[in-house]
Amino acid sequence: MDVTGKKLGLMMSTAPEHSNLETVLGLAGAALDGGAGVYLYLIDDAVAAVEDPRLQALAGRGARLFVCAYGCQKRGLPLSEKATNCGLVVLTDVINGTDRFVALN
Amino acid sequence: MARNVATLQAPASGPIDRTTPSDARLRVTGSPPVLVLISEDPRVSHRANEALRIALGIVAGESPVTIVLGGPATRLLDEDTDGLVDGDDIAKFRAALRRLQVPFHVETAARPADADWNAEGHPIVPVTAADVAALVAQARRLLVF
Fold this sequence. Notes:
The complex is a heterodimer.
Chain A: E1 7-12, H1 20-33, E2 37-42, H2 53-60, E3 64-68, H3 69-74, E4 84-86, H4 88-97, E5 100-104
Parallel strand pairs in A: 1-2, 1-5, 2-3, 3-4
Chain B: E1 16-17, E2 27-28, E3 34-38, H1 47-60, E4 65-69, H2 87-99, E5 104-107, E6 124-127, H3 129-138, E7 141-144
Parallel strand pairs in B: 3-4, 3-7, 4-5, 5-6
Antiparallel strand pairs in B: 1-2
């Protein structure tokens, strides 16, 4: 299946310890390998994963990394400079603007 | 912040319905809804509230949303929110969704019998498991909590 130029949206809401992170890494990595664009939105407990080196490596390969600013604030986490801090408007854009969207909760 | 998504374009968009009453909100019609299916128990987990918040955020983004409450998530409509995790937020989000005339699709088998359940009279659409399956099949996007 040729995914070149396609857009994959991912949302993760679980803590970094959850196996969903591995799933995200696998899906995003495969999509990037195939030439697709990847848009990953971290929300709820997943905001703690924003500076995970594996996610940052995806960003280094071109994945767009977004993190819920409200979720960071609620947990007393500083806003990261390694992702785009944003709100649900951007999540809606990712949901609506990608060819495929997968939510991992 | 939005620059990172500036290149995102919806694969398909429908006509704009400009007949929406009262608040003149514009909705993109003609596209299947985003389905937010919640089964987390708001009495023990904050995730039910978070799912409600996300649903409201998507609605605010002018996207059609169908919210389904299954299992213990039907407790999101308990009159007394003091017993719910993030109960104050739940009350606020419920009120906002009611103002926007977004109904809750409630799994019939999980509907509490308490007399004060849904005391605010939020619009309800009773659904069976088969109905939920059909809603999932029709949805453009699916978020399951």
